[in-house]
Amino acid sequence: MRTLVIYNPVAGQHDVVRSLEEALAYLRTQGHDVTVRRTLGGGDATTFAREAVAEQFDMVIAAGGDGTVGEVVNGLAGTECILGVLPLGTANVWARTLGLPLWSHGRAQTSLLDAAKALLSGEVHRIDLGKCAEHYFILWSGIGFDAEVTRQVEPHREMRRNLGNITYYVAMVALGFTLRGTRVTIVIDGKAMRQRAFLIVVSNVQLYGGSVMVAPQAQLDDGYLDVYVFKGSNALDAAGQLINVFAGRHLQDPSIETYRAKTVSIRADKPLPLHIDGEPCGYTPADITVVPRALRVLMPTSASPSLFEGSNPEQPVRAAGTTVGWVEKGKQLYSDWEQRRHLPPRE
């Protein structure tokens, strides 16, 4: 299997060179012919992914954060090339969605190797994508408050790299004092409504911003996007909704309206900022559609079954002859356990 690894060297907050080398070495032992390309700036990952498709690579692995994943998605959408991920970013929402191992202080040198092993244990699924103008998204699009936070934080990449998600929290608090709802017209699958809202989330996944379960009913292959309209006029309205989101009560909050949609059009009385997968992407008006089964993705077995409407995996991504038999694997595990216990080897 020809595999291109697109590595973003400025993703995340930690030095992962050694851990990445271990992960790449593992991929090679599993029959992957690995090529590595480093990004130098925005848009490189999309260009590299498109070139990989043209050069008939079988899989592209995004070694970076959600921004890198999003760029790779825009290079692979609508093709047969498979998407994989090795999480190097700060939030790593896509990796968390899949249940992949992430960096921690106790396992800094093994996290990417563990992620590579978990990834290759999985199967290929076809999933939906969202699309706004010419941009595809695998996670979500946000209109309003969260997009303004993203827009404010975007120029301070070095600060974001050093402080991580704290940067976003500080920006949220600062902007929250001046938060005001805006009159918007939202058209969902041809049905129009008029609301005063400060945030609209159009989601393809269940998680939002790391570990917050905003869209628990979202599925990756159901042909729909999940829409959440946060109605309100000021920061007090937003604070109450935020509490309900963290408490898991937002689906019962009458000030948060939820919909499933194939198409969403948003027009506002004043231009509202827009982001796609955490990257600023202009302003309203916005027209968003679902693109069913537009991407082939390698899903580890750790991915929750609730992510899928039905079980539709393709064949596992393993090279011929690399699968270890269960008997041999059991013997190896027992031998390792005996050595740790200082017991004599088992015959």
Keywords, separated by commas or semicolons:
347 residues; alpha+beta; Rossmann fold; Tumour Suppressor Smad4; 2 domains; 15-stranded mixed beta sheet; two-stranded antiparallel sheet; 31% helix; 31% strand; disordered C terminus
In a few lines, what is going on in this structure?
The protein is of the alpha+beta class and 347 residues long. It has helices at residues 17-29, 44-54, 66-76, 93-98, 111-120, 145-153, 157-163, 166-176, 235-247, 326-341, and strands at residues 2-7, 33-38, 59-64, 82-87, 123-132, 135-137, 140-144, 182-188, 191-203, 207-208, 212-213, 225-231, 256-261, 263-268, 273-276, 279-283, 286-299.
Element layout with pairings:
Elements: E1 2-7, H1 17-29, E2 33-38, H2 44-54, E3 59-64, H3 66-76, E4 82-87, H4 93-98, H5 111-120, E5 123-132, E6 135-137, E7 140-144, H6 145-153, H7 157-163, H8 166-176, E8 182-188, E9 191-203, E10 207-208, E11 212-213, E12 225-231, H9 235-247, E13 256-261, E14 263-268, E15 273-276, E16 279-283, E17 286-299, H10 326-341
Helix pairs in contact: 1-5, 2-3, 6-8
Q: According to CATH, what is the class of the largest domain?
A: Mainly Beta
Q: Which band does the percent of strand residues land in? A: 25-35%
Largest sheet: 15 strands, mixed
Helix and strand sequence: EHEHEHEHHEEEHHHEEEEEHEEEEEH
Q: What structural category do the secondary elements indicate?
A: alpha+beta
Number of helices: 10
The tally of beta strands, per DSSP, is 17
CATH architecture of the largest domain: Sandwich
- Assembly state here? single chain
Distance between the termini: 37 Å
Kindly identify the CATH topology of the largest domain: Tumour Suppressor Smad4
Overall geometry: elongated
Tally of domains:
2
> What is the residue-mean pLDDT, rounded to a whole number?
83
